[in-house]
Amino acid sequence: MSTRPSTVPEGFTPTGTIATHADRRRVVFATVVGTTVEWYDFFIYATAVGLVFGQLFFAPLGANSAIIAFATVGVSFLFRPLGAFLAGHFGDKYGRKVVLTWTLILMGAATALIGLLPVYDTIGVWAPIILVFLRILQGISAGGEWGGAVLMAVEHAPKKRRGAFGASPQIGVPLGLLLASGVMALMAMIAPGDAFLEWGWRIPFLLSVVLIVVGYYIRRSVEESPVFAELSARKEKARMPIVTLFRGHALLVFIAALVFAGNNAVGYMTTGGYIQGYATNPEGPIGLERGPVLWAVTGSAVTWLLATLAAGFVSDRLGRRTTYVIGWILQLVGVFTLFPLVNTGDVGLLFGGLAILTIGLGFTYGPQAALYAELFPASIRFSGVSISYAIGAILGGAFAPTIATALVAATGSTDAVTIYLAGMTVVGLAATLLLRDRSGIPLGPDHEEEQARSPIYGMSRA
C-alpha cells in the first residue's frame, strides 16, 4: 500500500486546487437532479402497477392478476445486481461520471417506451412480455445508478460533512416519489375515470424524455470524483474490482445489504405502489378515490425528503451508527401505526400514517451514502456500494408489495403485513449493530490499508 502524501488531498479538486463552494454545490445539484429523474422513472412504473397495469396488461391472466402485476415490480430487482456488477466494474475502472450518464439514458429510454406500449387488448400476451422486458431494463439502470451518484457526492464532500452531502442523492428517492405521485395525481384530475385508463397514465411515462435531457445536461457539467481521478492518475485502479471485493469483503457486502433491506422493504409500501393499490381497490376494504390517495402519498414524500436531509446532517454530528439506531426505532413506530391509520378509510389519517412512517424511513436512508462509502476501500468502492445496495434491494423491497398482497389475501387482514415489516426493521437494526462506526475515515487511495480493515464487530482489524 502507498504511504506517500495524497496527490489530491481531501477538499481539493483533481487539478490540485481547493474545491470551492460553487464546485461542491454543482455536484450536489447534479446528483439530486439525476437521482430524482432516475427514481421518478422507476417509481412511476410501481405507481401505475397499483392503479392501472393490473387491469390493462395482466387482468386476462386470471384471478391472481394483481399479485402477478406487483411481481413485475420485483422482477426488476433481480436484475439490479447485473446493473450493479456492470456499473461497479466500469465505475471502478473508467470513472463514476461515465456510468451515471449511461444509466440515465437507459432508464429514460425504457420509461418512455412503456408510455408508448400497446395494452393486452391490442397485442395480446406480447403486451405484458414487453412490459416486463422494459421493467428489467429499468432494474439494470437502477442497479448502476445509485453507487455512482452517492460516490460523486460523498467523495467530493469535506470530511465532516459527508453525511449532509451524501443525503443529496438520497433525497432523489422521495423527490422521485413526490414527482411520480404528483404527476399521476394531476393526470387523474385532467383525465378522470376511463380517460385515465385509456391515455392519462401514459403522459407521466412520456414526460421522462424531457427529464432525461435536463438530467443529462446537468450531469455532463460536473467534474469526475477526486478519489477516482487520483486512482486513475496513479494507475492504481483494480483490474478485477468485483473479484477483489468478494475475495476480501463478501461478509461485509451481505451485512451492508441487510442494513438497506430493512429500510427498503418498508419503503416499498409506497414506492412499490402497494398502499396506492390497497387504498384505491374498489373491491377492497377501503375503496378511496385515486386522486386523494395519490396526493396523500405525494405529501408523505415531502416528510420523507425532510427526514432524509435531517438524518444526513445528524449523522455528521452523532455518527452514522447512532443515527441509524434512532431511525430503526422511529421506523418501527411507523410500521405499527401505518395500517391502523390507513384502514380507517380517512385520507387525512392515511397521510398521517405515511408521514409518521417516512420519518423513520428518512433516518434509515439519509446516512446510507456516507455509511456505505466509508465501509469499502477506494479501489473497489463503486463495486462495494453498488452491489451491497442491489442485493439489499432484492432482500428488501423487491417483492415486498407482492408479499403484502399475498399476506392480505391469505389472512384477510393487514396484521401479517405489519409483522413482516416489523421483522424487516429488526433485521436492519441487527445488521447496523454489527458494524463499527467509521465516520470520517479517510477515503483517498493513500489510506487503502486502513479502509480494508474489517468494520464488522468480532472480525480481525489487521
From TrEMBL:
Q: What protein does this entry describe? A: MHS family MFS transporter
InterPro entries for this protein:
MFS, MFS_dom, MFS_sugar_transport-like, MFS_trans_sf, Sugar_transporter_CS
What subcellular locations does the record give?
Cell membrane
Keywords in alphabetical order: Cell membrane, Membrane, Transmembrane, Transmembrane helix, Transport
- Domain of life where this protein originates: Bacteria
Residue ranges annotated as coiled coil are none
The Major facilitator superfamily (MFS) profile domain extends over: 27-440
Q: Does the keyword Cell membrane apply?
A: yes
Give the transmembrane region(s).
67-87, 99-120, 126-154, 175-193, 199-219, 240-261, 293-313, 325-342, 348-366, 387-410, 416-435
Topology versus the membrane, per the UniProt entry? Multi-pass membrane protein
* Any Pfam family: MFS_1
